[in-house]
Amino acid sequence: MELLRFATAGSVDDGKSTLIGRLLYDSKAIFEDQLEAVERLSRQRGDEYTDLALLTDGLRAEREQGITIDVAYRYFATPLRKFIIADTPGHIQYTRNMVTGNSTADLTLVLVDARKGIVEQTRRHAFLASLLRVPHLLVCVNKMDLVDYDEAVFTRIREEFKAFATRLEVTDLAFIPISALHGDNVVQRSLNMTWYEGPSLLHHLEQVYIASDRNLIDPRLPVQWVVRPTASTVPDFRGYAGRVAGGVFRPGDEVMVLPSGLTTTIAAIDTFDGPVDEAFAPMSVMVRLAQDLDVSRGDLICRPHNQPTVGQDIDAMMCWMADRPLAEGDVVALKHTTRWVRAQVRHVHYSLDVNTLHRDDSANVLRLNDVGRVSLRVTQPLFYDSYRRNRFTGSFVVAAEDTNATVGAGMILGAG
C-alpha cells in the first residue's frame, strides 16, 4: 500500500489535536487501553466529554495548557492506504516545530476555526507549507457545529483563503467543512451539512493522488553506508546502501559516482526483502556496481548525462530555529543528504515577513523563527538540485558546531 505523510497546521485552539484524535478513534486505529487512559484523564480534569486531543498531546505542559508544543507522530492504516501523521503546534513560538513536521509531508492539513476565520497563523502556516513545497494543501474549516453548520460561513472562509492562496505556489487546494468534536465529515459524511457534496476527510486522504509528486526523472542515490561481507563464506563484494532521492535505477544502467566522476554500470540492486528490478524514491536499497570504485559515505550515484549541480557556493531560503541569531560570518555544520560539511554565512539578503510576504532588505541577521534568503560557502562541494526540482537533494539542515543542536533548515535556490 502507498504511504501518505501528512501534517496538521493552523492557529492555536483550531482543533488540530482533537481532529487527529477523532480521525484515529473513528477509523478504529487506537487500542482499548489508550482510549481508557484518555477517558480516565478526561474525567480527572473534569471534562464533560472524552478529550480525544489527549491522544496526541502527550507532554504534561501540553495537557496543562491545552496546546500542542512538540511534534507528535502517529501511524494508522486503512484497507486503501497507510498514514503517518505529524501533529504540529499552532503557536508562533513553535513555528520551527511546524516546519519540522511539514518538511517531509505529502499533504498539509490546515485547520481554520469557523468562528474566527483566517487569522495570522493560518496565513503563516499556509505560506510555510508552500515554501516547503508540500504538494497538496487541504483546508478543513473546523467547529462548524458552533456556527450552526452555516454554509455561508464555510463559503466566506473558502473564498478568502483562495484569494490569499493566489499569492502562494499551491498546486492542489481543497476545502472540507468539519466538526472534529462531533466527527462531522471526518470519517463519515455529515447529516448536518447536506449542502456539502464533497468527500469526507478520510476519503480525501485515501484518494489524493501522490504517485506523481516525487521526482522520477533525475536519478540520485546519496551513499549512506558501504556494505562489506562479515563472514568468510560470503562472496567478496561491495554494496553501497542509501535511500533513493530521485529518479529510477535498474540493473545494467550506466551510472556516475560523484565527486570522482568515474562511470560504471549497476550489477544488482538489493533490498531487505531481496533483489529488485528497479529502485525509485523513497526506497532504501543497496546497489552493487560492476567495477570496484572508490565510493564512500557522502558520495552520490547518478546518471552520466543527468548530473546534479556541483558547487561550494549556494543560495538558500533558511528557516532559523535557534535563540542565537544567525549573522554574516557565522560558521555552522551543514548536513546535505549524507554529507557533513562546514559552512560560512557570506551574506543575509533579506528576511521575509510570512504574514504579509514582504521582504525586509535591511535585515542582516535571522532570528528565532525567521525565514530569509542567505548565501553560504561550504568547505567541500555539494551535489545538489534546486529545492523546487527535488525536495531531498535540494534541502539541508544546519547544526551549531559547539552543541551539535539543530539550529536551522534550508531550501536551495541555486548557485550562490
Low-confidence stretches: 58-69
Query: So, the CATH homologous superfamily of the largest domain?
Result: P-loop containing nucleotide triphosphate hydrolases
Number of helices: 7
Shape: globular
Report the helical percentage.
10-25%
Secondary-structure arrangement, i.e. CATH architecture of the largest domain: 3-Layer(aba) Sandwich
Biggest sheet statistics: 8 strands, antiparallel
In total, the number of strands is: 25
Query: How many independent structural domains?
Result: 3
Backbone structural class: alpha+beta
* Structural Rg: 23 Å
Could you tell me the strand content as a percent range? 35-45%
| Gap between N and C termini | 41 Å
Provide the residue-averaged pLDDT.
87
Instruction: Indicate the CATH topology of the largest domain.
Output: Rossmann fold
CATH class of the largest domain: Alpha Beta
What does this structure look like?
- The chain is α+β, with helices and mostly antiparallel strands and 416 residues long.
- It folds into 3 domains: 3-207, P-loop containing nucleotide triphosphate hydrolases (Rossmann fold, 3-Layer(aba) Sandwich), CATH 3.40.50; 220-302, Elongation Factor Tu (Ef-tu), domain 3 (Beta Barrel); 309-415, Elongation Factor Tu (Ef-tu), domain 3, CATH 2.40.30.10.
- It contains 7 helices and 25 strands.
- Strands 7, 8, 9, 11, 12, 13, 15 and 16 form an 8-stranded antiparallel sheet that branches. It has a 6-stranded mixed sheet with strand order 2-3-1-4-5-6, sandwiched between helices.
- The longest helix has 15 residues, at 151-165.
- The two termini are 41 Å apart.
